[in-house]
Amino acid sequence: MLRTNRRTFIQGATALGLASTLPRAAFAQPTRGGRLRAAMGHGSTSDSFDPALYSNFYMRAQTFARNNMLTEIAPDQTLRGELAERFEANATADVWRFKIREGVEFHNGKTLTPEDVVASIDYHRVDGSKSAVKSSAESIAEISIDGPWVVMTLHEPNADFAYLISDFHFSIFPSENGKIDFSEGVGTGGYVVESYEPGVRTEFKRFANYWKPDSAYFDEIELLTVADKTARITAIATGQVDIADRIDATTASRVESASGVRLFRTSGPQHFSFAMNVTQDPFTDRNVRLALKYAVNREEMVEKILGGYGSVGNDHPIPSSSPYFNVDLEQHSYDPDRARFHMKEAGLDSISTELHAADAAFTGAVDAATLYSESARAAGIDIKVAREPNDGYWKNIWRNKPWAASFWSGRSTADAMFSLTYASGAPWNETAWNNERFDKILIAARGELDEGKRREMYHEMQKLVHDEGGAVVPMFADYIVGLRDTVATPEVTGNNLDLDGLRFLERWWMA
Amino acid sequence: MNPILILIAKRLGLGLLTLWFVSFGVFFAIEALPGDTAEAILGQSATPETVAALREELHLNQPALLRYWNWQIAVLTGDFGTSLSNGRPVSELIGTRLGNTMFLAGMAALISVPLALCLGLLAALWRNSLFDRLINAVTLTSISMPEFFIGYVLIFAFAIRAGILPPMSAISPTMGLPDRIVFTILPALTLTLVVVAHMMRMTRASLVNLLSLPYVEMARLKGAREMRVILFHVLPNALGPIVTVIALNLAYLITGVVVVEVVFVYPGLGQLLVDSVSSRDLPVVQVSCMIFASAYILLNLTADVIAIVSDPRQLHRT
């Protein structure tokens, strides 16, 4: 006779391989329904639905809820097709083909066609485009339609092109006669925008005909912009919202101690740097740069500035989660003797310089600069911390002063990160670095489809930046978010960005 | 023609002139700030080409005077333009925010003005008593504390400790009136604590000022009770300064509450103005400043008219 008690049930369940459904609310099966209220510390009254101008995490979250792109970065950081059912490159990685999914509906009932895709990408390519992704779009020499396929021919080979096209700026909007219409925020995504007040809130309702299975579980979403940190924390502590992002290290413990709230950490590519302009004295001599790299106490910064929510950096922008991370590279650490050695090599007994910082660079930048100044003193280096105003920091201080604090949210591919900041002539080359060998392998690696060769090249690039580059990268910072126990997250969440690659609106559910 | 109407007409005319000066001054003040809307919108993703392209689209490469002139002409025909940052019509953007601000100001005024008048009256009635000293001390303390501090204390007391009110005033246009009131109580209370002191003390001071006059002594000798003396004999004469102070504080409730808006995340006009200045969004800044200037002008005008009408000597002089 079959006696079912708790023990036999669990044994049976385990035997059926259902052991993964252990009683932890966070990893239970997704359920539909509920109204999510999320408060983000981003968003401004100058935001709009115009995809050329998207610039902050709020717009990214909103975009991923209402639109889809051709490809998507999956939670496990691999690339998968979104509106492109399949995608492939030719042997030289300079012709890419995307097969557009059939039967996808926009919120206004129109069916997705390859013409919509072409129009949406072209919007960023046209002459006089003000798009933030203009440089990526301009790498496309030609776009054409071949039946259900969209074919893109690039100027140069790029093995990561499919990653580039997953950028949220390349949202696919409905088009007419080659022109896209984004005025109402109509897309193919899981949620329809019911109302939107820039810098205040967006109200979403689930789109019943969303093509993607196992997605978009909430019935309604209220996405608020709450710039004031205290208001965000109070809102989640009192239960007025279910999610509050941008929790910083100093208040993380306060948030965690509120009842019904837990912290959600993402260790991604976000890092902070102190960028030296290598064309300006005293940073022109690589020995001076190395001396400064050995004069910073990285562990202390992670502990005091990040509250332990982060990890030490090794003076290059590639995070340890990247498949190309160079584990063999010597970790620069706090070593005043080595610093002095390099100063002697440069022919100096002391260095005296200024470091410009403001909290606009990253929270705690001024404190970090002060810590740096203190630890450098033991090596005979005098760093004067110049505290700058927040307003206009990125315009007036960053890249204008020889040494300034800076922040990078990071990129999902090593190529994108290196091309953005370290290639000579790159738009955001904050160190004004110009290294021929680096540029050469950067371009070679971009088109290289052989993983082994690629890895070797990226390892060398990390070494070059580490040894010769002008950026001191002392730490990688985790993103910290507060979640109420009304919200459940999947077991694997994306770490390319905060909040599950900022796709939390479509991937998470009410517990 | 009625001298009062002439006065009002003259004042309105001067008011319009003031508005014009304000719009001119604000325009060139924003122009003088470093950076412009194109750079502000693109932020870190600004490159020389994209900035130039955006500038061209927003007509920012035209000379300043020309842009001001175009804006002037448009406004005179009722077209307030579109926001440079997000392309929405300025009237739509400002409309909801202005409504919210007026609602908050209205609620704060509804609580603070009667409260200040009553307290001022009672303080004048029982002058120099313990009540008087206590009220003065309490209101002076509340006006001396920064608004964000008062706001945080109220949030702590009512939202976190007692849990009866929401800490964030997340009002939306579709919300019903009772909900709106619940969300607006805490910011309104904060503002009340900030403005009551000024109005109450001025009420008390102007009442007490007149109490030493002979006609008051006469009223007392006739046997009138103190309350009647104050309400019917003294108050009408004290109205001038009291109404002026009330008008000043009401104007503050409309124009000066950006800190409270930030603390409570209340979507009002102050916050919009600060954001627009940061992004150098001229059309929005211009119209907001003109609304604020109009608020001051109209409230001052009302106060002056009331003051004149309530004083027969001034009434017959004009």
Distance between the termini of chain A: 37 Å
Instruction: Please describe the biggest sheet of chain A, giving its number of strands, its sense, and whether it closes into a barrel.
Output: 7 strands, mixed
Helical percentage of chain B: over 70%
Distance from first to last alpha carbon of chain B: 12 Å
Number of strands of chain A: 23
Q: What is the SS-derived class of chain B?
A: mainly alpha
Individual helix count of chain B: 14
Description:
The complex is a heterodimer of chains A (511) and B (318). Chain A is built from 17 helices and 23 strands. By secondary structure, chain A is of the alpha+beta class. In chain A, helix 8 (286-294) packs antiparallel against helix 10 and helix 14 (436-447) packs antiparallel against helix 15 (451-468). The longest helix of chain A is centred in the C-terminal third of the chain and has 18 residues, at 451-468. The model of chain A is unreliable at 13-26 (pLDDT under 50). Chain B is an all-alpha fold and 318 residues long. In chain B, 78% of the residues lie in helices and 0% in strands. Chain B contains 14 helices and no strands. At the A-B interface, helix 6 and helix 12 of A face helix 2, helix 3, helix 7, helix 11 and helix 12 of B.
Q: What key phrases describe this protein's structure?
A:
heterodimer, A: 511 residues, alpha+beta, 7-stranded mixed sheet, 4-stranded antiparallel sheet, 17 helices, 23 strands, B: 318 residues, mainly alpha, 14 helices, globular
Short summary of the structure?
The complex is a heterodimer of chains A (511) and B (318). By secondary structure, chain A is an alpha+beta fold.
Secondary-structure topology with pairs:
The complex is a heterodimer of chains A (511) and B (318).
Chain A: H1 6-15, E1 35-40, H2 57-66, E2 71-73, E3 79-81, E4 84-89, E5 95-100, H3 114-125, H4 134-138, E6 140-146, E7 149-154, H5 161-164, E8 175-176, E9 179-180, E10 191-197, E11 201-206, E12 220-225, H6 229-237, E13 243-244, H7 249-257, E14 261-266, E15 271-276, H8 286-294, H9 298-304, E16 310-312, H10 336-345, E17 351-357, H11 365-377, E18 381-387, H12 393-397, E19 403-408, H13 414-421, H14 436-447, H15 451-468, E20 471-477, E21 479-484, E22 487-488, H16 498-501, H17 504-507, E23 509-510
Parallel strand pairs in A: 1-12, 1-13, 17-18
Antiparallel strand pairs in A: 2-3, 4-5, 5-7, 6-7, 8-9, 10-11, 11-12, 13-21, 14-21, 15-19, 15-20, 16-20, 22-23
Helix pairs in contact in A: 8-10, 14-15
Chain B: H1 3-32, H2 37-42, H3 48-57, H4 64-76, H5 90-125, H6 130-144, H7 147-161, H8 177-210, H9 214-221, H10 226-255, H11 258-264, H12 269-278, H13 282-310, H14 312-317
Helix pairs in contact in B: 1-13, 5-6, 5-8, 5-10, 6-8, 7-8, 7-11, 8-10, 9-10, 10-13, 11-12, 12-13
